[in-house]
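Teaching assistant here, posting this on the class forum so everyone can see the example we discussed in section. The complex has two components, and the goal was to see what a joint structure prediction looks like when all of them are supplied at once.
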Amino acid sequence: MAFYVVQFLTGLASAASLFLVASGLSIIFGVTRIVNFAHGAFYMIGAYIAFTLTERLSGAFGFWGAIVVAAFAVALIGVLVEMVLLRRIYHAPELFQLLATFGLTLMVEDLVVLIWGPDDLVGRRAPGFKGAIDFFGQNIPSYDLFLIVLSPVVLGILWLLFQRTRWGVLVRAATQDRDMVAALGVNQKWLFTSVFAVGVFLAALGGALQIPRDAVHHAMDLRIIVDVFVVVVIGGLGSIVGAFVAAVLVSELNAFGILIFPKISIILVFLVMAVVLIVRPWGLFGRPEAPARRTPGLTVNPWRPLTSNERLAALAALVVAASLPLFAGNYALTVGSEIAIFVIFAVSLHFLMSVGGLASFGHAAYFGLGAYGVAFLAKMAGLPMIVCLLLGPLLGCMGAAVFGFFAVQLSGVYFAMLTLAFAQIVWSIAFQWVSVTGGDNGILSIWPEKWAASPSHFYWLALGVAALVTIALRVMVFSPFGYALRATRDSLLRSEAIGINAKRMQWTAFVIAGTTAGIGGALFAYLKGSVFPDNLGISLSVDALVMVLLGGVETVSGGVIGAIVYKALNIWLVSQTDLSKLVLGGFIVLIVVVFPKGIVGMLEMLAQRRRKTSPPGSPLLAKPIESAE
Amino acid sequence: MKLTVQDLNSHYGPAHILFDIGFEVGDGEVVALLGRNGAGKSTTFRSIVGLVAQRSGRIMFEGKDVSARPTHEIVRDGLGYVPEERRIFTDLTVEENLEVGRQPKRLNAPYWTREKLFALFPNLGEMKNRPGGRMSGGEQQMLTIARTLMGNPSLMLLDEPSEGLSPKIVEQMVDAILTMKKEGVSIVVSEQNLHFARLISDRAYIIERGRICFGGTMAELDARPDIRDAHLSL
């Protein structure tokens, strides 16, 4: 019995940091409508700065002072980020905001390694809370008890701040109607900046308070952000009480999940999240939102099938690509195969985003599942390559069917967060379930059979599949299904009013995109000869998003161009610098700020401008069109 | 002149909504902007306070051109705005709604305290702690006017204050507007209801399809039944 009580208290103590970070994220989202992906990064910087300060300053005052100073310092960094970056993108679609803050996260990951080195840093114990308390033979660290008391105290302070101060009243008003607050003479800019500062302060405090419990390391940002996304999805985005309750719930599920499913403890959290989503899609303490602002897909130019000249041009490009083995060496062909595979991957996500209007932040899950599907079939069942290639993607299809069912219940940022959380769950399973997946060691030596073994043959295979997949998806865009899907994207309510089953359309699109990604993954397993958990990791999901964004979301063929340019650039970059995350992150931020329409979008705009002068203002970044009265 | 609008043009995306709008409001005057649904009344108000991004023209408020300034600065200079859809903060109580609108005292405008506003709208005083979402339409309309008055405006843009209200509440609204006028607030009120406008206004402009097509005193408008019938009758 005592053991379970102690386990319960440990869970409560872990909830403290989670609550601090999640409440910060919720507050920021409430007012600015930005889901701050960089929140995990601020948490991490808070921990690193607190570590350095606690090493330098001595005594009890030094330790606690260092924690507070670290949180304030990071809040100041947050203010800079808000003023320099976020102010430029408040009116951009949600996806761009998520991506920009993700780019920031990538940059921070490299920067902390540059400053503090790649090794785990073990911090000092908190003065006055070094020991443990005996509870019927079980030890409870006294610092855990401190954290258990701290979270309700913080909850109380936040409550007072929001209920009893003018600032709190303004923030709650802005959460509901930003423009009206401005129309009453409140300077939104500074309100937003102050809210961001408070949110970042909470995240950094959460990180700083972790140092006596856990080592500080450069991957702690992603670990916390996934948990935080799960917490806000369960608790309801924008609700501080929801963040508190869900943080406790998730921490307890983790604490006890380890006892029930020691290998895959995350399953329990997933099950609870699934139940919450079915019963209350907007979270326990959230409230249903009106259909969100339209995300990418606000097409200005109606799409049309290619003209016969354009078809010829595409065919010519394919012929040129197919003749590559005649003059290129083996390395170039391997790179070519990889690019072709990523075209498949990018095109599948592009279909989901541009046609379905669903921006998945965890698309790599289905790519990776396809790869693992091949690995299981080839290694365990010993099936021939053709069969593996045909059946392997079915694992991606099944994953997409299960996760997609829950994901399409939500939209906008909730959809993005949920798909990310699902992908991370799949990653954890691949990572933790060593007996089946090989864990971090992956599954090795999955080589293609003789007929596809040579680089040129494999290149032709990859290129052929990429071409087929692209054509199939394009045909689908202009099929009745494609029209129905686009109607759903443009207005969920109106499409339902004319008899389209919107959720089923979106689910179907999700499964199609997931299966297609799985095809890419299946080829990828044979190209690399191995499968690792990284094949379904977050960074791969983001790669896909960047490819789509670079090519242009609002175009029909942006995915192809984006994948070619990005992958080539990426391969070249990794060979040139150790700081690829820093460069890549900066690149993402740059695209979002100065290049929001992508390559194909830019070309189309230039072509259009040559024909006639465009109407005033950029429709994409203009304020949402309201009733014209 | 309190407010002078010249050559105001506004767009929503590719749609041109307002065409060369021009009108004036004198110190302490109540001016009605009359027109049918969709004529451009609300867009005119939204353009004046800077809530329409694509606009051009000159908007002189108390002798200064405010057309290039952000919304909150225009409002802080004393140009209050009451939107048509009321847009009260439903999660906030009556007191908290008023708090959002509070601005410092202004020299050239009447100063409103909570007590004074509760005297003007007695209903609100009886429900200080009620959330805005649990008020009737008429009470919400009063709250949204009181909220803007908390900013001590010298000029107030009042968008269709009588819309959807019961006759009894409309009477209260007329009294409240006349009190505001007596205190020295200049008012532009947009209306479809000519009867209501006549009870409170000194002068009127008629707007139709984004263009001003009449301007004059209420007496001059009554002398031209042809204009009234062409642009206002239902």
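For the discussion questions: The interface with chain A takes residues 11-15, 17, 37-38, 40-43, 49, 51, 53-54, 70-73, 75-76, 81, 83-84, 87, 89-92, 96-97, 99-103, 147-148, 151 of chain B (CB under 8 Å). Chain B has a mean pLDDT of 92. Think about how each of these relates to the inputs above.
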